[in-house]
Design brief:
This protein folds into 2 domains: about 140 residues, no CATH class; about 80 residues, GMP Synthetase, Chain A, domain 3 (2-Layer Sandwich), CATH 3.30.300. It has 5 helices and 11 strands. Strands 1, 2, 3, 4, 5 and 6 form a 6-stranded antiparallel β-sheet that branches. The chain has a 5-stranded mixed β-sheet with strand order 7-8-9-10-11, covered by helices on one side. Helix 1 crosses helix 3. The relative contact order is 0.10.
Length: about 240
């Protein structure tokens, strides 16, 4: 019978690594990077092994290329699993996901042994890579919104979303007179749209001069719904987004 360790090594070689490269990452087996002229944007596989079991997760790290070259650490590039003290940002992937805590995947023998691999690739695609790109752009001084809510305030809002089984708000930022909410929602999620419409109504009722609309987008930055000041008057701002 094929062991969990053997299945994991096969899955890493034949499924996980090729899938990550299709997402635009370069590298092989356990360390990958996003092409970027100014930063090392890295993804590293972290493993925990016992005699008959193996589980894994991902560390993400962002290091300025100039900072890395100036520090003269050994090796051609940083290791995303190591802490050097010059990182722009680093995180374990579970911190970026709706659970907000460590997430590990385990390859188990059986007909569904690839499920963990597919799920972990989806986590990288929807949560890891968008955040790496956003952090790199922010460090370059690109247009990234001003944080609107403190972590504690955001958790208060998310506690309400949790009670109605809607994915949490990952970021709330002010961009170009709009409050932009980012989360793991989809355009087909009618429940999320309804609940977020209510959330938008609450934000707009504060009459904060820094924003006039509330925009919702998915974790890849794709627009979902716009909620404007006509929410309660029926004169627009109904959450419809123009087709693109």
């Amino acid at each position: 019978m094929t062991t969990a360790h053997e299945l994991y090594e096969r899955g890493l070689r034949d499924h996980l690594a090729p899938a990550l490269r299709l997402l635009g990452l370069t590298g092989r087996l356990r360390t990958f990077s996003l092409p970027d002229e100014t930063h090392w944007a890295l993804l590293g596989l972290v493993e925990q092994r016992t005699e008959d079991r193996l589980r894994y997760t991902f560390d993400l790290s962002l290091v300025g290329r100039a900072d890395w070259a100036g520090a003269a650490f050994p090796g051609p590039r940083p290791d995303p699993r190591a802490v050097y003290g010059i990182e722009v940002w680093r995180a374990r992937i579970g911190e970026l996901m709706p659970v907000g805590e460590d997430v590990w995947w385990e390859v188990l023998p059986g007909p569904r042994w690839r499920v963990a691999l597919d799920d972990s690739v989806a986590a990288v695609r929807h949560y890891g890579l968008p955040e790496l790109r956003r952090r790199a752009e922010r460090d370059r001084g690109g247009e990234v919104g001003e944080t609107y809510l403190s972590p504690a305030e955001l958790e208060q809002v998310n506690a309400t979303l949790l009670t109605v089984a809607v994915a949490r708000i990952q970021r709330a930022e002010l961009v170009d007179k709009a409050l932009v909410l980012t989360g793991a929602w989809t355009r087909a999620d009618a429940a999320a749209r309804t609940v977020l419409r209510g959330v938008a109504r609450g934000f707009l009722s504060a009459e904060d001069e820094r924003f006039r609309t509330v925009r919702c987008q998915d974790t890849l930055g794709r627009p979902l719904w716009d909620f404007g000041p006509g929410l309660d008057r029926g004169t627009g701002g109904d959450g419809r987004h123009p087709e693109r």
